[in-house]
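Dear Dr. H.,

I hope your travels went smoothly. While you were away I took the liberty of generating a structure for the chain from your last submission, since the lab meeting agenda had it listed for discussion. I wanted you to have the full record in hand beforehand rather than looking at slides cold. The sequence, exactly as received, is reproduced here:
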Amino acid sequence: MNKLKLKKKLEDFFLEDIGDQDVTSEYLFLNDTVGEMVFMSKQTGVFCGAEIIHEGFHLLDSTIKTEVHIPDGAVVASGIPIATIQGPIVNLLKGERVILNLIQRMSGIATTTREAVQLLNSDDTRICDTRKTTPGLRMFEKYAVRAGGGLNHRYGLYDAVMLKDNHIAFSGSILHAVEKVRSELGHMVKIEVETENEAQVLEAVEAGVDCIMFDNCTPEEIQHLATLVPSAITTEASGGISLLNLASYRHTGVDYISLGALTHSASALDISAKVSIKIKVVQR
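The corresponding predicted structure, in token form, is as follows:
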């Protein structure tokens, strides 16, 4: 992850949660009261978010010591410590909720992605994500997909051309849309076209696009359509594919399968924070 963007995002998240002050912790403990907090997994899954723990607590207080015991992408079992954090307890408590929210979300996505990769069980077809991410969290969620063994599709509207059905309808045809975009676009940006039938696939091949997506097609339809595409053009299947039917797409011959469910339907991994050193409450 881009560390400058990471710090800016974390700063915004902390400001949203802390506001002017933590009226609970700041009135309960002295600033120099030190404690230890342990992040513990309460279920088995794929951990993701080591950098969030390090950067998040250090952003609040540079004296806080963070030790993450599980690398991103590793399976963590229930009851296993993920990280140990030591420092002023006021700042440990300020950062706890925001950091837990992020790593639980990211670990859930990494876990779902790993499950998808294992269900597909293919050496030829790779799993990737979509733009169906939570606004403001795309960088985190796409990183989590990679940690789970998947790949990233485009990050936004700015880094690749995807001509979808509405673009094509407004343009009149795939050929016209591709020619128009290519005449205005630099040679470094790839062009993908969404197709739904054989005629559209053949038109996209004629246009010489970089990638052809088979949208909302059955495994049998994709298997046929893929034979119409030269090997120089990347193929992708998307739409109507979930963890429940993913295995049936194993032998369709596509290069990638993109799943919105990796990010929009993943359940957070249950992670809690436990204080392992008891601190006396300071009466003020």
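Two observations you may find useful: The first strand starts at residue 34 and ends at 41. Residues 89-120 form the longest helix (32 residues).

With kind regards,
E. W.
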